[in-house]
DNA sequence: TATCCTAATACGGAAACCCGTAAAGTTTTA
DNA sequence: TAAAACTTTACGGGTTTCCGTATTAGGATA
């Protein structure tokens, strides 16, 4: 089982809760962080002092506040950490249930487990601990099929970004030029139209206002 | 200070965390619930057994699962409980930061404190405990100005109805004909256009999508 | 390399929306 | 009661969005 664990979540109450789960698994050497940059530094320092962490449990989304952070999300943190410390096991513990997100975290970032925050979060976190300790992958039931199917209905970060910009009041041409400057592809007006169309289809929206409204209600943006 | 507390949140990890906060305030008689209906029954039973709760700490949003629940949200729970047990203090502990929501909870549901989940959630929850114990109201800094009348803008029910219909995906002509059948005046397309224009002006929205998005964020619809 | 397939882009007409102005209808008030 | 002020409706022309179709680019396959 793991000896030294870093828990990263911006909500202190959640951090406390995760700590309890670890305690009940007889893991007592636990450090907390509320920012990704802070977590990054703690991992580096621990390694330098020859007392490295062997497990990282991190949230994905972090609310920004007065503190400037270079790493703004759990994805950023993992991307910064994993290449340097490939032996550090990583468990993601997040509200996010989009399969696409889970898939890329597992496949390209080398995350070892993905646990969804929910009614049984503590239980699943415990299982994840034991599985990952045995070098096995663990996924919460909600996202089990992240790896099997290529779910066409699945929406990705591009879609979210697109809808977010719509909700911010940008016109489709404005989004097109914005994407061009940000090197986000596809960026043509036509492609943006087409994508919006697809999304309206997926979410059964009558028009773009409706689409944005639905996606806001779902909490995706 | 409070003797017997019920904590209601669908995330078990959060429940654990809140429990720790209570412990550190020397409150040890704590019961947890993960569903609103469950919470409702526990409150009723406790009262019947002459061992009533004197504090309820509840989340607002609960994910639905296989269990059928009559009370689907923290608002529902409070609305069901408060009239019957007006002496039961209530602290809301939620991600939600929309002022309109906070306002109605405080003003019409008689909630005693509103704490936002966030980096300092534990800290603020502690303060809320002591304040509410002294019969004082507590609001997290993020929502402090929920009660300032300042936020009452120059918009009326007609505007809300209009924007709500937009968010439901109706086109402007559809809204026009709908208003005609409902005898809501003004109902001409031109007037509706004009009203939307005024609202875009008030809320500094670039276009109608933006308008709906802003008004949703404000919790007005 | 040639072929196939899919994703991205381009384009054009129709519909919806935007916006200013003008007319008609109501209410206020002098 | 008439003028003024405001609200509602009407209308026209410009812009954006919508939607189907056609073309192009790029990657996979054989």
Description of the structure:
The structure is a homodimer of 221-residue chains. Chain A contains nine helices and six strands. Chain A has helices spanning 12-24, 36-48, 74-81, 99-107, 121-133, 157-167, 172-181, 189-202, 208-217; strands at residues 4-8, 29-33, 55-58, 89-94, 113-116, 138-139. In chain A, strands 2-1-3-4-5-6 form a six-stranded parallel sheet, sandwiched between helices. In chain A, helix 1 packs across helix 5 and helix 2 (36-48) packs parallel to helix 3 (74-81). Chain A is elongated and about 55 Å long. The model of chain A has no long low-confidence stretch (mean pLDDT 92). The A-B interface holds A 10-18, 20-21, 34, 63, 65, 117-123, 125, 166-171, 205-210, 212-213, 216-217 and B 10-18, 20-21, 34, 63, 65, 117-123, 125, 166-171, 205-210, 212-213, 216-217.
Quick summary:
Two copies of one chain form a homodimer. In chain A, 46% of the residues lie in helices and 12% in strands.
Rg of chain A: 19 Å
Number of strands of chain A: 6
Mean pLDDT of chain A: 92
Q: Give the structural class of chain A.
A: alpha/beta
Q: Strand order across the biggest sheet of chain A?
A: 2-1-3-4-5-6
β-sheet strand percentage of chain A: 5-15%
Total helix count of chain A?
Answer: 9
Helical coverage of chain A, percent range: 40-55%
Oligomer: homodimer
H/E series of chain A: EHEHEHEHEHEHHHH
In the predicted model, the low-confidence regions of chain A spanning at least 5 consecutive residues are none
Shape of chain A: elongated
Biggest interface, and residues per chain?
A: A-B, 38 and 38 residues
